[in-house]
Write a structure and sequence with these properties.
homodimer, about 475 residues, mainly alpha, MgtE N-terminal fold, CBS-domain, Tetracycline Repressor, domain 2, 3 domains, three-stranded mixed β-sheet, two-stranded antiparallel ribbon, 22 helices, disordered N terminus
Chain lengths: ~475, ~475
């Protein structure tokens, strides 16, 4: 529901993407521009452009200038590489930094590859220390050095601090736009102090109240400051029982605290209790969404946020290691079957039935794993309830095994008119569901114990166990009973 | 990093959970309390409790009273049913409503089952209309009617409005705690108006500026109001180019807007432009996290947020339909193999090698599907780039097929010293990867077209296609070439 007819947020980002596509398509603008870029690169004089082309170019540039950096980022991600670089060339250079922050890692790489060091250093000039730290992992070391040297002393110290915290820590989420105030002043004084700012930093919902030595004493929500009598002293208004973090706290725990206590901003303090930075809810929301996406991608062996338009060659390279890993586990399962080739030669029905036994184990084990991964993430697993969960999962697997083993055993009997084969099928299904429950419970626990993210690798190991064991149990039982 | 030594947020929720466990374990408090509850229920006089038990009870109650509702909810979710109901009985009844809002659906059901209608209606009395609407789907219809009748006219109208919007719409996220102000007043007047509130609603980062007929004119960020000259008129300060939503806008688009533009609150307007409600970032963060969890659960056929401590019986019922669906697809794949039993009898190596061909197709197809699902969610798929993506995915599958088909063909030759078998293996792997690329691309597109969430069901269909086709291609080629 737009209020104004200005460009920026009055249409959805999707509409902007389509409009940009349309402008680019007009008179094959991209081909001409790519050509012009190439000729500029080789320092030849640019050809005389027709007036119509120029008009489209101006229109496109005007449109981009009116957009929020996040919307420009969205458009860049949605464009194939040649179009993307043309649009990137049209963006005003003072907005480069903000847009680089918003695009996905994979797309950022393509944009940075198109800039020289001087352009990157210039783009960084418009960014805060915490923002530069977010970009730094994607930049060549020399460029990072150049950027550090271009900062003043305070920014340089902040930048070095921000660069020192690993991804997944609060230090990587925090920014330095802290507004703090002393507790021994009145609201009147606080309001006067605030009026000296041009504008308060984004997401400022509270002032951080400190003592003379900058130690955190509490926070004063702006919504309380606004409704308070100007004569009242801040010490009587502040919240003392607040959530704060250390820079090396776990970012995920911080995100859970934001979600639980509905926070907008929270102070980050040093080990001696001095306020050094803050975390804001927009950084938390980005973190939650990005982690969710990167987990989903990692689960199927994709590098975080594969560029939709990356080349066939680089995508194939990106995806091959995952296929190789899965081929290895499939190969082992295949060798289990290979050990029973004699039985299969005698009774080929075994080959037809065995994928059902292995498959159902994988489905059932993944249900257990998904539950366990969630309770690990929320820290609700403990020695106190692990045994109870084990008993529950085993009980479920026996129940479901009896039910579906019975059904499939009956179907096997119907198909092959062989009672013993039906019995082997039923028993193998039940046993493999028990194996799946055990593997589904213990694999994520073991991964957590060894410091790996159980959300990502559990499924490969689980499928490996349920496939190999499913084949072994079914073919082994069949060999014993039937042959 | 606690500041005070009061209970509420000074320890992590995990520590509280452990402390509650400890208190409950002392002298088998739960057994005694359950016994007492049962005796109270049957209207017998309560037995005389020892003073020690009472002391533990008081300690537990004191601890619970000091906790944030979200932390009590976390503890309830982490406790098995008997302990959970004891703790629930100790919670002050005026906090019941807030805690019911915070627990997961499955756990909420267990708590509501322990309350009678009067208690539920009383708990609802402390909640706002939008909060009651969140609970309503879990309540019996009569109780919802009783709650509606207990409201005053304004709240009743809001409640009926909130109840009318489906899950996944902005109407289901919004609340009614709007602070609005007219544009023709000065900052001074605005500040005086605000001082009449006891405290502004949570997450108020801006005032919604309206005209005489309550039409939205823009927003005035509090951080700008605070730094402005009191004499200035609000009309000169407000942001007119803002994000607002209709109640039946898509909640996911709203969440993307919050993430993109770093919003804390945004107005919800009626179709004629009047402000009726607002969306706040805490509701968006909960929405993003809950949707992520319910998708992850739905992917493996679990009902949203299965209670970690639900009974074996109800869990087995919850999980059985998913296993049944997967059994059906596995059964069809098994019949494909069954059609080639004659070939397998002659060459049992086929049975050992066939799971590799089918498995790798599933892995590769899931990579494609994951990429496509994400670009569908971001609305970056279009007719303009679908063909380009198809060409790319086919290219990748041919490259990876040539590579891994070659490797596995060679391994098959090594194992069985059969050149033709190696060739069949290599060709079948490549063909099944091409099938996987096509299925991985078109299955999510088709699900989106038919209005289903492609993130949830795509994987079952995909595995079905890659398994059945993998078996068919490999066994079919082998029958043609080798036998």
């Amino acid at each position: 529901m737009p209020l104004s007819d200005t460009e920026s947020r009055s249409s959805s980002p999707q509409e902007h993407l389509h409009a940009v596509y349309g402008l680019l398509a007009k008179q094959r603008l991209v081909e001409k521009l790519v050509q012009r870029r190439d000729e500029e690169d080789s320092s030849k004089p640019a050809p005389v452009e027709s007036l119509v082309d120029e008009a489209n170019l101006v229109e496109l540039q005007r449109r981009l200038d009116g957009l929020h950096p996040a919307d420009v980022a969205y458009i860049l991600e949605g464009l194939p590489l040649p179009e993307r670089l043309v649009v990137w060339g049209l963006v005003r250079s003072d907005r480069d930094g903000d847009i680089l922050l918003e695009v996905s890692d994979a797309v950022r790489d393509t944009l940075l590859a198109d800039m020289d060091s001087a352009e990157i250093v210039a783009a960084a000039r418009n960014l805060d220390a915490d923002e530069i730290a977010d970009l730094a992992p994607d930049l060549p070391d020399e460029v990072v050095q150049d950027i550090i040297e271009a900062q003043d002393a305070q920014e340089r110290a902040r930048l070095q601090a921000a660069l020192s915290y690993p991804e997944g820590s609060v230090g990587a989420l925090m920014d330095f736009e802290v507004v703090s105030i002393r507790e021994d002043v009145t609201c009147e004084v606080a309001l006067r102090y605030l009026r000296r700012f041009d504008e308060l930093p984004g997401q400022t919902d509270a002032l951080f109240v400190v003592d003379r030595a900058d130690h955190l004493r509490g926070v004063l929500p702006l919504k309380r400051l606004l409704v308070s009598d100007p004569e009242v002293e801040i010490a009587t208004l502040l919240d003392r029982d607040i959530v704060s973090f250390l820079p090396d706290s776990d970012a995920d725990e911080a995100a859970q605290a934001f979600e639980r206590y509905d926070l907008v901003s929270a102070p980050v303090v040093s080990t001696d209790g001095r306020v050094i930075a803050r975390v804001t809810v927009d950084a938390v929301l980005d973190f939650v969404r990005e982690r969710q996406e990167s987990q989903e991608f990692a689960k199927v062996g994709l590098r975080e946020e594969e560029d939709l338009f990356s080349s066939v060659w680089s995508s194939a390279k990106n995806r091959a290691p995952w296929l190789a890993l899965n081929l290895c586990t499939a190969f082992v399962a295949s060798r289990v079957v290979g050990a029973f080739e004699g039985s299969i030669e005698k009774l080929a029905a075994l080959a037809a039935l065995m994928p059902i036994v292995s498959g159902i184990g994988g489905n059932s084990g993944n249900q257990t794993t998904t539950l366990i991964v969630r309770s690990l993430a929320l820290d609700q697993m403990s020695a106190m309830n692990a045994r109870r969960l084990l008993a529950k999962e085993l009980g479920i697997s026996v129940l479901n095994g009896a039910l579906w083993g019975g059904v499939l055993g009956f179907v096997a009997w119907l198909l092959y008119r062989n009672v013993a084969l039906g019995g082997v099928m039923a028993l193998a299904m039940m046993l493999n569901l028990v194996v799946a429950a055990l593997a589904g419970l213990f694999i994520p626990l073991a991964m957590e114990r060894f410091g790996r993210d159980p959300a990502i690798g559990s499924s490969v190991f689980l499928t490996f166990v349920t496939d190999s064991m499913g084949f072994f149990i079914f073919l082994g039982l069949a060999t014993l009973v039937l042959l």
